Amino acid sequence: MNFDLTDDQEMMRDMFARFLDENSSMARVRAAAPGGFDPDLWRGLAEQGALSIRVPEDAGGLGLGLFDATLLMTEAGRTLVSGPLAEALVAARLLAQSGAQPDLLERVLAGDAVVTIALHDIATTPQQWVAGASIAEAVIARRGADVVLVTLAAADQKAERNLADTPIAHIDFTGREGAPLAIASADFDAGVEEWKLLISAGLAGLSKESLRLASAYAGERKQFGQFIGQFQGISHPLADLVCEADGGTMLVWKAILNIADGSKEAGAAVSIAAWWNAIAAARCVAQALHTFGGYGLTTEYDIHLFNLRAKAWPLVYGDPALLLDEAGRRLYAGETASLPPAGDCPIEFDLGEDAAQMTREIDAFFTSQVSDEERSHFHYSWEGFVPTVHKKLADAGLLFPGLPGDLRGKKLSHYAQMAAMDAFEHHGYNNPAANVTQMVALIIHRFGSDELKADVLPRLMQGEAICSLGYSEPGSGSDVFAAQCKATPEGKGWRIDGTKMFTSGANLSSYVLMLCRTNTEVAKHAGLTMFIVPLKAEGVTVQPVYTFQDERTNITFYDNVRIPDSWRLGEVDGGVKTMSASLELEHGGGFGKYMRKMLDAGVAACRQISRNGKPLIEQQQAQARLARTAAHLWLAELITFRAQWVIAEKKANLAYGPMAKMFSSEKFLTDARDLLDLTAPDSLSLRPGPTAELNLFYRHAQGATIYGGTSEVHRSMIAERNLGLPRTRA
Length: 730
Prior knowledge:
Belongs to the acyl-CoA dehydrogenase family. By secondary structure, the protein is an alpha+beta fold. It folds into four domains: 180 residues, Butyryl-Coa Dehydrogenase, subunit A, domain 1, CATH 1.10.540.10; 134 residues, Butyryl-CoA Dehydrogenase, subunit A, domain 3 (Up-down Bundle), CATH 1.20.140; 119 residues, Butyryl-CoA Dehydrogenase, subunit A, domain 2, CATH 2.40.110; 130 residues, Up-down Bundle (Butyryl-CoA Dehydrogenase, subunit A, domain 3). It has a four-stranded mixed sheet, covered by helices on one side. The mean pLDDT is 95.
């Protein structure tokens, strides 16, 4: 797995960034209006090699890949470059491919002439808006099965005021022959697909910069005596959107990798990247402008320039919703697409051979060792705990793949650990019982007494006992540091009194990991201590609490419960340090595997259900909504991959784990609702089959945004650690 650029790509990106910071400043962008073209900037880009980046070397270009071109476009988007760069890059490659008019190509690469493209077939759309046509010498266009170069007259090059002062023009191609180019129509179509990715990259760069400007302003502007970035009404929407902006870049990368690998998803990936970035850019700039308040509406502040370009750049193609329709047809109606040459792509989402081996080992276990009767009890919650399967996994050495080698006896790479978790989820048995017990085993190993290590730890490791967590309390919820359950020294041990809420699995577990208040005279986070408490101890009461997710949790009461001091974990009042040991098991996880199964159920339901005499899967609105769910799934997986990659490779981590959890849980919930709507009223049924599965996923998704840290907590972490906003929590 890799999310890093090559050294050469880093150097190239930095070169373009420095050049554009100086030559596409906001002052230069403003000066280029109303025509929207900066000829000096354009010639400078040519000198930097930007215009020749996709032209083969034997035609005088750099011969670089599509990925390299998107790096340029990301910087161009960040600086609102004044000129039809995405269109010119595609036109230059097509002109070079045709071998026609080498003199014109030479002037294009030198920045002395502009050639652009018409995005729609002029045989069926003879009149259309063309980006860059107000300053271009010629337009490359498709006319049915032919590709032609149409020279523009002075009368065509008529600058026209438009939404964002970009150099577009409305061209009537009726009756214009144009010079034939030796290019197949499929090659031209591939150029349009390339344009979609280039403009997507530009929009992603624009989106990130608009959020950066908004965050910087929110960190210096004060209202009511506080920086406005401390208000969650400001910081939380920005946290949502940085996930969408980052996701836009990753969708572009996925599409390029899919093209390079020949994936059947490649065409749909292009459409989804273009749709997503068009929508996300509009959302990002709108929220960024809102952050500036009334000042954002004035022309004195640069944010309005981002707002206008975010809409203008993609709309030259048409309604972005059509791109989602296109993705739906490519995913579910067999529509194919001509795709451009990708070139080298450094990004890789494969986990490697050791991870593949771990997956095969777990697959073999579930195939040979798990009976149908055992499998029938599987469930995403604690209710799916099957003691016999748990014990067999322990005997096979597969129960706790996330534990470090010094405890487990066999060191696994982080990627193999990830693959194991994914494989369990694939088989429906990534059970909370094992995950929580794994965490408790690690804490005992690190902080437990000799007695705990001798008596409790072996039982956990051998699959003979499981543990639950006693963190939350009725009055504190996610604020674990507000715990009031007391542990009072008594003789050579402790007396525990209090209540814990959402002690899931306490009815099944032998032990509970307790966070207790041991000191009320210090800061609340400093007066906590960790204990292991046997749930069969006298004074412990477990009372069920049922949720509408088909899941049981518990409220547990501790009345004069006595344990020896040897069952304490770590130092007295050192509970926070003890709890931090569990961070070694942080996987930056999300809900991608559940989302994938939910999408599969949605597709299956749409194949079964008919509306107006036609299967739902054949209807455009159904295809588009399934495609939107697929987009959210792909992004959830990509954001999670990045979170896991930075952990494995020890890279800078800008709250990537919280981003993965928050984004995936929120989209899991919205898509679960939408798929129920799409398949209604059949989706009301709990008959065995895909609609029953959609019901279950809808119930499951309700809690996804709550447990493991609420979305609100994660949004605050993202705002602070990724966007640099002031701390919003006490």
